[in-house]
Specification:
- The protein is mainly α.
- Among the domains are: 51 residues, no CATH class; 79 residues, no CATH class.
- It is built from 6 helices and 2 strands; from the N terminus they run E-E-H-H-H-H-H-H.
- It has a two-stranded antiparallel ribbon with strand order 1-2.
- Helix 2 runs antiparallel to helix 3, helix 4 runs antiparallel to helix 5 and helix 5 packs antiparallel against helix 6.
- The radius of gyration is 30 Å and the shape is flat.
- The mean pLDDT is 78.
Length: 188
């Protein structure tokens, strides 16, 4: 980095010149990540689905036993893997990634667009009425988001209560964190 104090640029700042080197690297996580099918294994807790899956697996492996074993081991492994995956996809289905913020929906997006519009109006015409409109929109949005979040936490607590009543320990693991958030909002 060099500064040129004598440069005439009609300002009280000094001209600064620097050389920047950029190096692009590939993220290890992105390079090593491959798309893998994830199955909804929680459906195996249901007796009907478990029986259906067991029947499909036994039928597919019975069909594999009738095939010729003269092929190499890689071909056999590929067949076994494909049979397990197709039967799991048919009976269990794919695991759907959960939404991080289930309380954020289309209505919330509409509120955000409304706030953006009010902000643009304030930038174009900085009058007191536009300032008041923006403040009112911000207030409406914050109360709407707060109420949505409270409703979402109430629904989570109801699910935790039902899981604790049926003694489903696996789904009750995040209860302490949710209860801490719930009590901090003072909605009980």
């Amino acid at each position: 980095m060099q500064s040129f104090r004598g440069a005439d640029s009609n300002t009280d700042h000094y001209l600064v010149i620097t050389n920047v080197r950029k190096s692009l690297t590939v993220s290890k996580q992105a390079a090593q990540r491959y798309e893998r099918q994830r199955f909804n294994l929680r459906k195996l807790n249901e007796p009907e689905v478990r029986e259906q899956y067991q029947i499909e697996i036994t039928n597919r492996f019975a069909a594999l036993e009738n095939l010729n074993d003269d092929k190499d081991i890689n071909w056999a492994w590929k067949n076994i893997k494909e049979n397990i995956q197709t039967s799991a996809k048919e009976s269990l289905g794919l695991h759907e990634l959960k939404q991080n913020k289930p309380c954020f929906d289309e209505e919330c997006l509409g509120f955000l667009d409304q706030r953006k519009w009010a902000k643009m109006q304030l930038i174009q015409d900085p009058s007191q009425s536009n300032v008041d409109v923006l403040n009112n929109v911000r207030h409406e949005i914050s109360t709407h988001f707060r109420n949505k979040k409270k409703a979402n936490l109430r629904a989570k607590i109801e699910v935790l209560e039902t899981n604790s009543k049926i003694q489903n320990i696996r789904d009750c693991t995040g209860a302490s964190m949710i209860l801490r958030r719930f009590t901090s909002l003072d909605v009980i």
